[in-house]
Design brief:
- This protein is an alpha/beta fold.
- It has a single domain (about 15-125), classed as Rossmann fold.
- Helix content is about 40%, strand content about 20%.
- A 5-stranded parallel β-sheet has the order 2-1-3-4-5, with helices on both faces.
- The longest helix has 13 residues, at about 20-35.
- It is globular.
């Protein structure tokens, strides 16, 4: 990503990244950190929900298919509690899953693998 295409992100935004795949979690966290965002990483939705960090999050980026509370359930719960907006990412996008995500209040939906600029653009759109 060149400086000319670098999105403008609020410097104080905390993004919670939730994925049970450690490699994905770390990669997404590194990407977001590289543009100056504060990042908190969680291995499960349940870990995020139990964390005090949730109240500070400007946005949640979550996988869909995870043990315990999945990404759709997480989005439903955050919507019910007036929590931060949710971006879901999945390798298994179907029309039904997209519809479930929309009904759960998911703001953005990304198909894995996705380009880094796609995720950064979605976050920028939510935060600005």
């Amino acid at each position: 990503m060149t400086t000319a295409t670098m999105p403008t992100m609020p410097s104080t935004a905390l993004i919670a990244v939730v994925d049970d795949d450690e490699d994905v979690r770390i990669s997404v966290g590194a990407l977001l950190g590289s543009v100056g965002l504060d990042v908190a990483l969680f291995g499960s939705a349940d870990d995020l929900l139990a964390s005090s960090t949730l109240s500070e999050a400007a946005c949640v980026v979550s996988d869909v298919q995870m043990p315990g509370t999945d990404g759709i359930q997480l989005a439903r719960q955050l919507r019910a509690e007036a929590g931060p907006p949710v971006i879901l990412m999945t390798a298994f996008a179907t029309a039904s899953l997209r519809q479930d995500a929309e009904l759960a209040g998911v703001r953005r939906f990304l198909q894995k693998p996705f380009a880094p600029d796609d995720l950064l653009g979605e976050i920028e759109g939510l935060l600005n």
